[in-house]
Amino acid sequence: MVKNSMELGVNTRLAHCGNDPRDFHGFVNPPVVHASTVLFPDSATLVNRAQKYTYGTRGTPTTDALATAIDQLEGSAGTIVVPSGLAAVTVPLLAFSDAGSHVLIVDSVYHPTRHFADTMLKRLGVEVEYYDPRIGACISALMRPNTRVVFTESPASNTFEMQDIPAIAKAAKQAGAVVMMDNTWATPLYFRPLDHGVDISIHAATKYPAGHSDVLLGTVSANEEHWPRLHDGLITLGCCAAPDDVYQVLRGLRTMGVRLEHHSKSALDIAQWLEGRPGVARVLHPALPSHPDHALWKRDFSGSSGIFSVVLAGGGQKQAHAFLDALQIFGLGFSWGGYESLAVPVSLGDRTIAKGPYEGPVIRLQIGLEDVEDLKADIQRGLEAAASAA
Ligand SMILES: Cc1ncc(COP(=O)(O)O)c(C=O)c1O
Prior knowledge:
Layout: H1 10-16, H2 43-47, H3 61-74, E1 78-82, H4 85-96, E2 102-106, H5 111-123, E3 127-131, E4 147-153, H6 165-174, E5 178-182, H7 187-190, E6 200-204, E7 218-222, H8 227-237, H9 243-274, E8 280-284, H10 294-300, E9 307-312, H11 317-326, E10 331-332, E11 342-345, E12 362-366, H12 372-388
Parallel strand pairs: 2-3, 2-4, 4-5, 5-6, 10-11
Antiparallel strand pairs: 1-7, 6-7, 8-9, 9-12, 11-12
């Protein structure tokens, strides 16, 4: 039986995806290849680049091991590995847009994606337009003859609206656009974009794949049709990742399934506990039946990860800061997917469509691997401090 067959359980596949130990004398893990120069046996081989590895920027056994693992999880034809999650967004956007083309981006996108589109993409002559995360099939009304890319992210950054990915992908494909998805929240364990009509699946591997808040990395996976251009984009930009970081992420993948299950369970438990608690107006978590897009999440996703937001019942910055400053276990800091819990205030100042209204300050919680009762007690401290600041 093939150890990465889809018939096997996800943890079995995670334990064996990527490298084949027999390629390296049976050692379970692949070597970390630090490389720029690769030698050729003779001038004819060099001139024709007639061997598997030719230069460090073009792939090594270490990057291949991770890319193969991600292909097996995503069901993709090829994966590039880049130095951060943000690079995993910018490299495909650059690779697939042309001057004079039109790009549609979901309004609730990760803020630095928007910043890249509004600055560098616009300077390069690309027309950028934002759309409502809940647009669904109606996106067809926004498609133009020059629409080259439809960029999706589901659930939304910070506010967790779900997108109807199959409907959007269908409409975009009919109009000849490439469909990209930032799939970091779900990981390929809970959603496989290419199975739902997406062409390019993007991950900030910094989050759950790395899992320990000590590595930055991104992966971009393409279907057969779009792999050549994506690969060419990586080679042209020279945006390759460092071998030690690539190795750390491959190492992280082995335990991602068990970690994610714990993150998921704890986050859902805390989200349910928060609903209806004094001082809480709403909980923005798509796996909650109260979430307006719960049916979409249930239809398309097979799980939920460990990050969601809570809307406080009234107040403003003073209450939000009182909540955050009272926390003793949750750290105040950016990113997510690591073993430790984090909280940040959410700013929706960049949005033009998906801006609410919300009843009070929105606070994003990344639920780590700590014990749930300790995390609940910490959040309770925050809610009491916010109430006292009123
Ligand atoms: C949805 C999403 N995509 C991409 C990124 C970027 O990842 P990185 O921090 O590795 O650049 C983040 C980071 O928070 C994110 O939340």
